[in-house]
Write a structure and sequence with these properties.
This protein is α/β, with parallel strands linked by helices. About 35% of the residues lie in helices and about 25% in strands. The chain has a single domain, classed as Ribokinase (UDP-N-acetylmuramoyl-L-alanine:D-glutamate ligase), CATH 3.40.1190.
């Protein structure tokens, strides 16, 4: 993997963009809500927002619907400074994802509408004309691998990025409701992991990819060759990172959380921008963990992503666990 290329701190991020509606005020149950606040959503869009707020540049590859919600998403992407030149428009009955969410840490309800999702309409043609050589890395979120034509488009983008010398980073981002079966997810995400330089996922996601069900062993094996890195996240138990023969554990930062959502996307932003800054892998994982902890103390996902100064202040005043 060409870490020097990664240090351009300029990322292509491929995957889902949508609209989030949060029950307002925080703590309100969805079934009792009279007001909602809107925000940019979707894992790829959230990661791109996190990267930009931490000082990197990010350009999104996705498709949005040809309607007011699609225009809302484009406007939000521009608001965050995310590049939109590779955002396609999906016509017909395609609709962007809509997540209606509570800001509650206990028994948090999240209702997600994904029927005819616009990002699933991304095609191989949409990714063929991208100037991959202008960027430092390609970040792929696994949700859009669930069905065609976006599945084929993602594999084509990964191949074109590798041809251009870009590191390929996979956030497994497994959402069971999007897949025909766990077996399909296992084969497809596993294939994507094999051609990625960095693979980040939680214990459930690695277990889905592992034929034997031993996700930790798969994470170790994936990192064993070609200077690959894997980050195996274990929720409140922290994470284990593998890089060649090196491995280490990282604890979480203890906080009083408002809600559980957004942590994984924030982790990716903190982790990748830290690697791009030339920081040691262990420090990069710790900064990703700090970003994740910060986000769950705030309302929203994209709006909650920390700036570089906020992240530095948080780390200085909090200790990570073991």
């Amino acid at each position: 993997m060409d870490l020097e290329r990664l240090r351009r701190n300029s990322f292509l991020v491929l995957g889902r963009a949508g609209m989030d509606l949060y029950a307002d005020p925080p703590g309100t149950r969805l079934e009792q809500a009279g007001l909602f606040s809107s925000a940019l959503g979707g894992s790829a869009a959230n990661i791109a927002a996190a990267i930009v707020k931490l000082g990197g540049t990010a350009t999104l590859i996705t498709a949005v619907s040809d309607d007011a919600v699609g225009r809302f998403i484009r406007n939000q992407l521009r608001h965050y400074g995310i590049g939109t030149q590779y955002v396609a428009t999906a016509g017909g009955e395609a609709r962007n994802s809509l997540a209606i969410v509570e800001t509650r840490n206990e028994d948090c309800q999240s209702v997600i509408y994904r029927n005819g999702a616009a990002d699933f309409a991304l095609t191989g043609q949409d990714v063929a004309g991208i100037e991959y050589g202008d960027f430092g890395a390609l970040v792929v979120t696994g949700t859009s691998l669930a069905i065609e034509p976006s599945r084929g488009a993602i594999f084509r983008a990964m191949a074109l990025a590798r041809q251009a010398g870009l590191p390929v980073i996979l956030d497994v981002d497994y959402r069971p409701y999007s897949w025909a079966s766990a077996a399909d997810a296992s084969e497809t995400c596993g294939r994507a992991a094999l051609i990625s330089d960095i693979v980040v996922g939680n214990d459930v996601e690695f277990a889905v990819m592992a034929v034997t069900g031993d996700g930790l062993d798969l994470a170790r094996k994936l990192a064993a060759g070609d200077a690959r890195i894997t980050v195996y996240k274990k929720g409140e138990k922290g994470s284990v990172t593998f890089s060649g023969e090196r491995s280490f554990t990282t604890g979480i930062f203890a906080v009083t959380a408002l809600k559980p959502t957004g942590a994984g996307d924030a982790f990716m932003g903190g982790f990748l921008t830290s690697l791009a800054s030339g920081l040691d892998l262990e420090i990069a994982v710790r900064r990703g963990s700090a970003a994740a902890a910060l986000v769950v103390t705030r309302v929203g996902c994209a709006p909650a992503m920390p700036t570089a100064s906020e992240l530095a202040s948080f780390i200085a005043s909090h200790a990570a666990g073991v």
